[in-house]
Amino acid sequence: MRDVSHPVELVSGAVAIGGRPVLRGVDLTVAAGEFVALMGANGSGKSTLVKALVGLRPLVTGELRLFGTPLDSFASWERVGFVPQRQGATSGVPASVWEVVASGRLSRRRLFRLLSSADRAAIDDALAVVGLTHRARDGISQLSGGQQQRALIARALAAEPELFFLDEPTAGVDLPHQQGLADALTELKARGATIVLVAHELGPLAPLVERSVVMRDGRVVYDGAPLGDVAVHDPHLGDALERGHHHRSGEVHDHAPHIGSPLDRG
Amino acid sequence: MEIFGLAFMQRALLAAVLCGLAAPAVGTYLVQRRLALMGDGIGHVAVTGVALGLLTGASPTWTAVVVAVLGATLMELIRERGHTNGDVALALLFYGGLAGGILLTGLGGQSTSRLQQFLFGSITTISASDVWVTLVLALVVVAVCVGLAPQLFAVAQDQEFAQVAGLRVRGYNLLVAVLAAVSVTVAMRTVGLLLVSALMVVPVATAQQLTRSFRTTLAAAMVIGMLASVGGLSLSALAPAGTTVAPGPTIVLLALAGFVVTWPVGAWLRHRQRLVAPFEPVVPTGHETTGPHTDHQHGPDCGHVAVEHGDHLDYVHGGHRHAPHGEHYDEH
Q1: CB contact, 8 Å: B166 with chain A?
Q2: pLDDT > 70 in chain B, percent
Q3: DSSP 3-state assignment of A24?
Q4: Which of A115, B120, B181, B205 has the most CB atoms lying inside 10 A of its own CB?
Q5: Does the beta carbon of B161 lie under 8 angstroms from any beta carbon of chain A?
Q6: Is there a contact between B59 and B232 (Cβ–Cβ < 8 Å)?
Q7: Which SUPFAM superfamilies match (chain B) (predicted)?
Q8: What is the tens place of the pLDDT at every residue in B98-114?
Q9: How far is B158 from chain A, CA to nearest CA, in Å?
Q10: What's the rounded Cα separation, in Å, for the pair B20 and B228?
């Protein structure tokens, strides 16, 4: 047992999907209260890394600790808030915004118990932080894309976690609504939350970011001070980063899926 | 009316109430997962279970429960593997179940008319012991579906999120599959295996025409299912002597009639909701005024749709959005 444990500690993590190594040799430590942006092109492995960090993708090798506890024995899931990519906001049966947000409270609820007043207060607070209090009784499918994304953030917030993982919260959200997202994240940061954000482009979230981690082809190529949206895609990024012996062929190949097989999964 | 005093009719009514409550309760979770036809698949597989019971002399209800639970678990495991051709694998299972059942019935020397009782339902021949089985199974299904509603809702809504929230997603998925299998066998004596999926899905489809939240959908579907089931049975019992009105199809057609009645209402409500959805609070840069409205004053009762637009209302007519501005109207 260590006295001070970081919320996230991943040491030489590797993830394989369908037998093919996707992430290799990833080291990532996130300190309490940090706001980290995981960036990179499509297919660079940034979403896979977040899924590995929350236990949705098993590690082939490496060690992952959350709040100092190895993932296998980690049970305090109420300390972790996960905001997946937006496609999961609606389902085959209507659900109100309040119900979706309330489902985030489950990590703190016992089976066959009604909601306590503390549960209700946390749900109301989560709705207020993302500015959706007035839409609580509406169906989730009636919200715009940006509002649905904020509802998913509120769902993660309802459990009052200390550590947030957000997977592409800005994807497909227009600029004015990205600003609404940025406001909600500013409030979370002010409350001392640790935030790991996957983003293609930061947009209005840029001022919040304290550290950028850039992925390319399943490896971390940069870890340091925040980078602009353009600098992230500089093909020579990371050359200066001391990562030991590393052969470079000189030519830069494209890691985005080729258009010849558009239906294959990335 | 004296028919309702007869013991077999009272047993049938009790069974109808319970099936009507249990089937839509599970059905809501199936529809939420976009697996509306899973009940149908389980129904086909259960045919083999019934035939096994008829062949071996065991109670067809229990063999159906066992085979349906096994089939539903297998379907859930196939679905979990997430193969792109998962629906084809499910189809193989459905037809295997149906063909196996018919073959086994023939082998046992039973005529298909005995099997037909289970395929199309025969609620009025239900025995006292069958009612008890139905009662217990249905109560278990309803208790689990309502008691674990928050967990089952979360898992069906967003599996990845539920897993990160610490829920045992696989366990809950299997639980829904098992509940579906149990309610299929509970309802098979009422509406029959070939129509059981209707009682699971149609009340849910009807309820969600008018509801906006999951909990009201679940509750309304259960009430609608029970009304259709009791109503259909009563209608068939009250049919004039000399005509044969089978209870199973009557229940299903009554449920469908409920959908046909509520659908236009739901469609109108959704249309209305789209019309009055607030406009983006962007005010046009220019100041374009409308032509004179000498014969018409926009207002709460003017008959035009009033839509919220920032701090005022826009009145929509003829492809225009008219915002009151002093004595005239602006084009917004």
Answers
A1: yes
A2: 97
A3: strand
A4: B181
A5: yes
A6: no
A7: ABC transporter involved in vitamin B12 uptake, BtuC (SSF81345)
A8: 999 989 988 887 777 78
A9: 6
A10: 7
Interface membership of A159 toward B (CB under 8 Å)? yes
d(CA A101, CA A99): 5
* C-beta atoms of B153 and A95 within 8 A: yes
**Residue A41 pLDDT greater than 80, yes or no:** yes
**Minimal Cβ distance to B154: which of A80, A106, A156:** A106
Asked if residue A159 lies in contact with residue A104, where contact means CB atoms within 8 angstroms, the answer is: yes
Question: Does the CB of B279 have a partner CB in chain A at under 8 Å?
Answer: no
User: Rounded to two decimals, what is the model's pTM?
Assistant: 0.85
Cβ–Cβ < 8 Å for B321, B315: yes
Q: Which two tokens stand for residue A116?
A: 């306590």
What digits encode the pLDDT tens for the residues A62-96?
999 999 999 999 999 999 999 998 765 678 899 99
Nearest chain A CA: its distance from B78 CA (Å): 17
Q: Which of A122-126, A179-183, B165-169, B196-200 comes out lowest in average pLDDT?
A: A179-183
pLDDT above 90 coverage of chain A, percent: 56
Q: Note whether B213 contacts A: Cβ–Cβ < 8 A.
A: yes
Tens-digit pLDDT profile for residues A193-245: 999 999 888 888 999 999 999 999 999 999 988 887 777 777 777 665 544 45
The pLDDT value given to residue A241: 52
For the segment A44-72, the average pLDDT, to the nearest whole number, is: 94
Q: Kindly determine whether residue A112 and residue B147, on different chains, have CB atoms separated by under 8 Å.
A: yes
Strand partners, A165: A82, A196
d(CA A248, CA A171): 32
The answer to whether the CB atoms of A95 and B214 lie below 8 A apart is yes
Phi, psi of B205 (to 5 degrees): -60, -40
The domains of chain B are located at: 2-245, 277-331
In angstroms, the separation between the Cα of residue B207 and the nearest Cα of chain A is 10
The structure tokens 């919260």 sit at A169
By the 8 A CB rule, do B152 and B142 touch? no
Provide the mean pLDDT of chain B: 88
Torsion angle of the four alpha carbons B209, B210, B215, B221, in this order, in degrees rounded to the nearest 10: -60
Q: Which residues of A64-83 are buried (b: 16+ CB within 10 A; e: fewer)?
A: bbbbeeebeebeebbbbbbb
Q: Chain B: give the shortest CA distance to residue A82, in Å.
A: 6
**ipTM given for this complex:** 0.83
CATH says B2-245 is which class?
A: mainly alpha
Q: What does the alpha-carbon distance between residue A154 and residue A152 come to, in Å, rounded to a whole number?
A: 5
- The per-residue pLDDT for A245 is 52
pLDDT at A70: 94
Sheet containing A8-17: order of strands: A20-30, A8-17, A61-66, A69-70
